[in-house]
Amino acid sequence: MGGYGVAIVGHCNPRIVDALKEQSKRLITCHGSLYNDVRADLLEKITKISPKGLDEVYLCNSGAESVECALKLARKYSGRPEVIAMTRSYHGKTLGALSATWNKKYRSEFEPLVPEIKFTSFGDADKVREAVTDKTGAIIVEPVQGEGGIHVAPDGFLEELREICYERDILLIFDEVQTGFGRTGKMWACEHWNVIPDVMCLAKGIGGGLPLGATLAKEEVMSTFKVGDHTSTLGGNPLSCATACATIDYILEENLVERAMKLGAVFRDGLERLKMKYQIVREVRGLGLMLGMELRFDIRNILMRGVEEGAIMLYSGRNVLRFLPPLIISEVQIHKAIDILDSLISEEEDLRTGK
Ligand SMILES: Cc1ncc(COP(=O)(O)O)c(C=O)c1O
Q: What is the rounded CA–CA span in Å between residue 20 and residue 237?
């Protein structure tokens, strides 16, 4: 599970540990209203690798916070209150992010949520087009839905959303909190379709394990925020910025983006073989090292047994196993994980068929 996808460069990567140690001797906190050298370094590093035009960066502490910033930007930039989100979406659990999150399980006890956020079918651009009104200010989407079950945007979908947003002067927000920083075999998942959003949300692995989030936006969008409109006391603190700098350097120097693509294919191959072998496996999905395996039954036993056998796996709902390993995972480790999964699925199938 790689710490819910956070440990993209592994746990306690020596480069991250060194950066943390060094920075902790220099300066641990520095409010965003003051200049800070490592923060400036990080902003430069992010904008060097960001999709073209996404040159403005707001730093915060988590994925949900990066989404909050995007939702507020949408309101301020467009002057329109409505946001279109997707079925099966997940954007976090603060009130705004939760309002754009699909799953009733997370929402129902906290209603009323932020009004005027509505959902349309992920993957169906015609439905999105129908849902747009004169009040729509933004469309928010994950290029690959993670928590919702590892669903990759079908070809043409994001391209059409881009068109709709240009036509109707709506902000296109990509939530790349889970897909960003090489996870899918490209630096950003949106590169698989060559679509650039107006706003992009990042977090998880960005800090190398320390809390950090970022909202990227085009200059004309971000500049609608005036001083004090949206701030965070700890957002972009020097410690997290130092580990984030080390993380980005490590990803680039070690070619982890290409590695995710290559090893993702190895992992997927193993999962596909299990699908051929076992009736209870319904589908294998994903991109790069963001993979899912849908079973025909509840995966609880497999998750619990996996921990005992040395493979900590993640769920996406009741019946999808989600794999978000560190991008430094080795082929040997992948084969070991597949072997463990093989024996666990075999056990489960025997259990289900009463053998
Ligand atoms: C796509 C996406 N957006 C937002 C979030 C929320 O991030 P956080 O848990 O850091 O608030 C997550 C977390 O899983 C996520 O996968």
A: 12
Same domain, 42 and 92: yes
State the distance from the centre of ligand 1 to the C-alpha of 64, rounded, in angstroms.
Answer: 6
CA geometry: angle 143, 251, 306, nearest 5 deg: 70
Question: Does 146 lie in the same domain as 97?
Answer: yes
The C-alpha atoms of residue 87 and residue 108 are separated, in whole angstroms, by 15
Asked if residue 96 and residue 163 are part of one domain, the reply reads yes
Q: Are 111 and 101 in contact (CB under 8 A)?
A: no
Q: Are 27 and 185 in contact (CB under 8 A)?
A: no
Same domain, 240 and 115: yes
Q: What is the pLDDT of residues 236-290, one digit of tens each?
A: 999 999 999 999 999 999 999 999 999 999 999 999 999 999 999 999 999 999 9
For the chain, which ranges sit under pLDDT 70?
none
Q: CB within 6 Å of ligand 1 — which residues? A: 62-64, 67, 90-92, 142, 146-147, 175, 177-178, 203
Please identify, by atom number, the ligand 1 atom nearest to the C-alpha of residue 175: 1
Three-class secondary structure assignment of 52-83: CCCCEEEEECCHHHHHHHHHHHHHHHHCCCEE
Q: Indicate the top mutation candidate among 8, 66, 91 to test ligand 1's pocket, ranked by most ligand atoms within 8 A of CB.
A: 91
Q: What is the pLDDT of residue 275?
A: 98
1 belongs to a structural domain: no
Residues 238 and 113 in one domain: yes
pLDDT tens per residue across span 102-130:
999 999 999 999 999 999 999 999 999 99
- This prediction has a pTM of 0.98
Whole-number average pLDDT of the chain: 97
- Token pair, residue 27, equals 């300066």
CA Rg value for the chain: 20
**214 shares its domain with 132:** yes
Q: For ligand 1, atom 10, which residue shows the shortest CA distance?
A: 63
